Amino acid sequence: MSDINIVVEDRAGNTSELVAPTDMGLSLMEFLKACEYDVLATCGGMALCATCCVDVMEGEENLKEMSDDEYAMLDTLPDLLPNSRLACQLQLSPAMNGLKVRLHAMD
């Protein structure tokens, strides 16, 4: 099976369950943008802007370990949560089935 289910909560608190392909090499950021979520992704997925930040509500243990670049970028956010991640750094994979994320609040 190459599709996974991801639950996304937008900034208004609305929740949607989405089916995401894992065989196209997409990041979570690219998938969220394709689903027309309000994700700026100003840097285009280079872990340089943190405008694609999400808070992982469920499934964090199934994600790959955070890179130093991702950690350094997240560390610049004033409202960083322990479960915050950059969606551009999360490659969609079968292990992420059931992932639940909330779009991080933006100022």
Automatic annotation (TrEMBL):
Domain 2Fe-2S ferredoxin-type, first and last residues per copy: 2-107
UniProt cross-references to PROSITE patterns, sorted A to Z: 2FE2S_FER_2 (PS51085)
Cofactor: [2Fe-2S] cluster
UniProt-listed Gene3D superfamilies: 3.10.20.30
GO molecular function ontology, one term from the record: electron transfer activity
Pfam families: Fer2
Keywords from the UniProt entry: 2Fe-2S, Iron, Iron-sulfur, Metal-binding
Keyword Calcium (UniProt): no
Keyword Iron: yes
Residue stretches spanning the membrane: none
Highest taxon in the source lineage: Bacteria
GO biological process: P450-containing electron transport chain
Family classification: Belongs to the adrenodoxin/putidaredoxin family.
Protein name (record): 2Fe-2S iron-sulfur cluster binding domain-containing protein
